[in-house]
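Quick one: structure for this chain?
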Amino acid sequence: MHAISRNFLSSTLQSLQNPYYLVPVLWRSLYLRFYENQRPQHEAWDEYLIIKEKEIQLRSYVNKLRQELLELERKCTEKNSNMIKIEKDTVTTT
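Got it. Here's what it folds into:
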């Protein structure tokens, strides 16, 4: 068994010393791992962009609604002020 281990170790070391063996192994392990199937990442990125665009649209809509609310509050306040003036004038004239 000791001889088998030594032979295996010797053949493994010889194959590692062979540059034609090392280049493909290094190429696959160092470079190609970055070029695996990128489709899931692309799909996730596309979904992110869709969500981000929707967020921008919704924020714009919220800002529009806030402006509209402020305008309605302002009109309501003016109307109430005018009604109070009219009531005061009516009370003072009678």
